[in-house]
Amino acid sequence: MIYRPGIIIGTRPEAIKMAPLVAAFRQMEGMNPIVIVTGQHSELLHPVLSFFGIFPEVELGVMVRGQSLAELNSRLLFELDRVIPTLNLSSILVQGDTTSALAGAMVGFYRKIDVVHIEAGLRTDDLYAPFPEEFNRRVIDQVSTVKFPPTAASLTRLVAENMGVNSVMVGNTVIDALLLGLQLIEQRGVQPYHDWMESLGCVPGARRILVTTHRRENGGAPLDQICWALRQLLEENSDLEILLPVHRNPEFFDTIHHRLKDTPRMILLEPLPYDKLIWAMSQSTLVLTDSGGLQEEAPALNKPVLVMRDVTERPEGVTSGCAVLVGTSQTKIVDEVTRLLRDHKAYAAMAESPNPYGDGTASRQIVNYLKLHFNQEVTPGNFNFVPTQ
Fold first, then answer.
1. Structural domain boundaries of the chain?
2. pLDDT in tens, 302-346
3. What is the pTM of this model?
4. Is 169 within 8 Å of 129 (Cβ atoms)?
5. Catalytic status, residue 97
6. Residue 143: which of 108, 119, 98, 111 has the closest Cα?
């Protein structure tokens, strides 16, 4: 019997985190993954899929300029419900907390197809932070028949919410993607990446901060504070460079370029392809971000990560010491970055903290568990999971 998982991918982060899982499915006999791209981030996710050698079986086009979340969700529901019954799927796999993941889980529930939630159990306990992701992931967990929480804390949360059955802690597939991506870069040659950074004006050996910001809640006044903090850091540290890929959201793009475009050693970039992003991260001193994925990736490269949010659904990094919540206050951001730049012991303590998000084997564990769960033959000793009651 062939196991045919339908893998829903809507955004670039989903593409990154699902890529090693697609590879793991394809490496195991009896598995036939069907990749369904919704097009929520069409321009951003296709370079990721191409980098990992993934060519979707199904591509939808759901984006309409200026549409609301409700309109996006309704289009996703309609299109996914139209195509999924034609694919003879064994289950539907969704990742994280996007609108595409929510719609995929809802259609699976409506069609009585098993829903598998990758990266389950994340919570901030505030339905509006982040918005709408906190709501999305709670609903997805409710309708999922199998859940893969990435950490002990997320597993504990599912158990506390009476969703511990078939909830299996495996680590986060983003670490699998990061390690696989760096391996591909090494195999294909690193010199083009060195040349690229030199073309940006980066100085070899300089201290460098990789910055990303795009969260809805950080628009407006918080984004102003972030920009002022970055200017101050460059003014006070003459040997510092900042790499800032600018999100295409007009509010973020316009504000960042207006406030920072003429700042010395501030390198404003188009959104980076995944391979260049992880290379830039590997060549940076620390990471300053409001992204979820970078909170998990940076510790895997021993890079301290300062999180420009007041709360995070990934508290494990804060608990382990590899991440610090700095919010969006100019003073707080400047103080924490300066502390790490000038206090070598403080920097080393964060850089050497254990990474709580996995060891790069999450995808293999997921595939083996699903093969066992859906009554497929599994190679003895080739999985590592702890089923819960």
1. 5-172+359-373, 191-351
2. 999 999 999 888 889 999 999 999 999 999 999 999 999 999 999
3. 0.86
4. no
5. yes
6. 108
